[in-house]
Amino acid sequence: MILCCGEALIDMLPRETIAGEAAFAPYAGGAVFNTAIALGRLGAPVGFFSGLSTDLFGVQLTETLAASQVETDLCARSDRPTTLAFVRLTNGQASYAFYDENTAGRLLAKADLPTLPDRVSTLFFGGISLVNEPAAATYEALMAREAPRRVTMLDPNIRPGFIADAAAYRARIGRMIALADILKLSDEDLHWLEGPGEILPLARGLLARGPKLVLVTEGAADARAITATEDRFCEATPVQVADTVGAGDTFNAGVLAALHEAGGLSKSAVTSLSPETLDAALALGTRAAAVTVSRPGANPPWADEL
Predict the structure, then answer these.
(1) In this structure, which long-range contacts are made by residues 10-13, counting pairs with CB atoms below 8 Å and at least 24 apart in sequence?
(2) Tell me: the pLDDT tens digits for 247-297?
(3) d(CA 130, CA 106)
(4) Is the torsion defined by CA of 114, 266, 171, 232 positive or negative?
(5) Running DSSP on this structure, what letter comes out for residue 75?
(6) How far apart are CA 16 and CA 19, in angstroms?
(7) Please, what sign has the CA dihedral across residues 190, 196, 200, 206?
(8) CB 140 within 8 Å of CB 166
(9) pTM of this structure
(10) pLDDT of 112 higher than 90
(11) Cα→Cα distances 240→13, 173, 186, 250, 285, Å
């Protein structure tokens, strides 16, 4: 099973009432949540770990996960409120205003960490859950505890506008990169972390810190999979874009689903992924992401839609 560890929240998406008034509609979301949903819809065995509220929005999150075949028995439940993210779309690009103080997800503590069953082969981390304490330290502790014997993947999905202490955040991401077997970054994330330069040498520098595979997405251009011996790429599938909410999250799910199918999610297998396996992972990731961006909101495809 692939266990997605990170934020679950309610995206308040802009809508218009029949009277023409501006309004917001609540949709279940969050970067790591979206990856879990996409994995479940693609048919991969998947679970979710986060701090989930028992309030009405927490119930919505739980029901949405269950509807996409995502297990939630490892989640930490509390009566604290659910995080809300109000979304603004400009030419299809999303920007966010978060309401996250004293929430069930934000206050996740190390004491809430579960004992993982043996069937968990892989842990996925990322998103804004790695920005604020105490949740950020809790997820890092879980990754450090499990990385020696399970495959770990990291997508920091960097949102500079929400990072109050850049030095502390960079230090945490640096430590987690060293623990990760698989690292995924957008080209913007890569340059934010590593500065200017060509993608391949920057990615090779990150490989030297510990990861076995670095994935880099370049928006509507292409995606690359870089290992110590390979540099594979896949062109993005051209589609009419509704918005980009959940695109990278769905790409992550496609990659993980393909690696699972190929038997690549073990500590030994991930060190020697074949070109064919990398190509299949990139292909499924880009195809699935193309469906997501073609429709409003984070609505990943089911396997039969591909």
Answers:
(1) 10/57, 10/60, 10/61, 10/82, 10/83, 10/84, 10/85, 11/85, 11/87, 11/245, 11/297, 11/298, 12/84, 12/85, 12/86, 12/87, 13/87, 13/245, 13/296, 13/297
(2) 999 999 999 999 999 999 999 999 999 999 999 999 999 999 999 988 877
(3) 10
(4) negative
(5) P
(6) 8
(7) negative
(8) no
(9) 0.94
(10) yes
(11) 20, 34, 21, 17, 17
215 has which bridge partners?
184, 225
Q: Is the peptide bond before 134 cis (omega within 30 degrees of 0)?
A: yes
290 three-state secondary structure = helix
Residue with tokens 């919505």: 60
Q: Which of 175-209 are b and which e, b meaning 16 or more Cβ less than 10 Å from the residue's Cβ? A: ebbebbbbbbbbeebbebbeeeeebeebbeebbee
- How much is the pLDDT for 92? 63
- Which tens digits make up the pLDDT trace of 163-209? 999 999 999 999 999 999 999 999 999 999 999 999 999 999 999 99
CA-CA distance, 63 to 67, in Å (whole number)? 6
- 276: phi then psi, degrees, rounded to nearest 5: -65, -40
In order, the DSSP letters of 83-124 are: PEEEEEEETTEEEEEEE-TT-TTTT--GGGPPPPPTT--EEE
Q: Side chain identity at 158, as an amino acid letter?
A: I
